[in-house]
Amino acid sequence: MSVIIRLQHEAFDVAAETAALMRGRTDIGALVTFTGICRGAENGDPIVALHLEHFPDMAEAEIARHVDDAQARWPLLGVIVIHRYGRIVPGEDIMMVATASPHRQVAFAAAEFLMDFLKTRAPFWKRVESAGASSWVDAKAEDDAAAQRWDTRDDAAE
Questions:
Q1: Cα 53–3–86 angle (5° rounding)?
Q2: Average pLDDT of 33-58?
Q3: The CATH number of the domain where 146 resides is what?
């Protein structure tokens, strides 16, 4: 299985990343991708930029651990997780998850599982910069609730 996990400051090209994963592969029947993009406003308040911070070794290890968990739950053929850090302005990509499998249900479930993990448990800290101020983003109860559904082992789509 092909696994790519990268934490990087620079922008990435979703099409190029997925093309590299698919190159020469005829066993993949489904590819699901998700790209998180920096919004220009939150609750009607303009956003100037997001600042994402992390501990590199810890973040990579935690993401790899959850990719391993996804592989144990579903028959995956490839996974890409790319997450940016530093200052990101509205319209720029923040992160991407891609999952490849023989069947769509598996690819969708694994992508959703990884996204729920990244949103709630990956060691990243986000600060929102607005006109003249900045504030740290708190965890959201609805994100935690979404991630809790994966705590059972009965969720694997075949």
A1: 15
A2: 93
A3: 3.90.1170.40
Within-domain flag for 12: yes
Give this prediction's pTM.
0.87
pLDDT, tens digit (0-9, with 9 covering 90-100), for 90-125: 999 999 999 999 999 999 999 999 999 888 878 899
Listed as own residue / partner, the contacts of 110-114 with beta carbons closer than 8 Å and 24 or more positions apart are 110/32, 110/70, 110/73, 110/74, 110/76, 110/79, 111/32, 111/33, 111/34, 113/66, 113/69, 113/70, 113/73, 113/150, 113/155, 114/66, 114/67, 114/70, 114/79, 114/81
Structure token pair of residue 2 = 């092909």
The 3-state DSSP composition of the chain as helix, strand, coil percent (nearest 5) reads 35, 35, 30
Are residues 95 and 80 in contact, defined by beta-carbon separation less than 8 angstroms? no
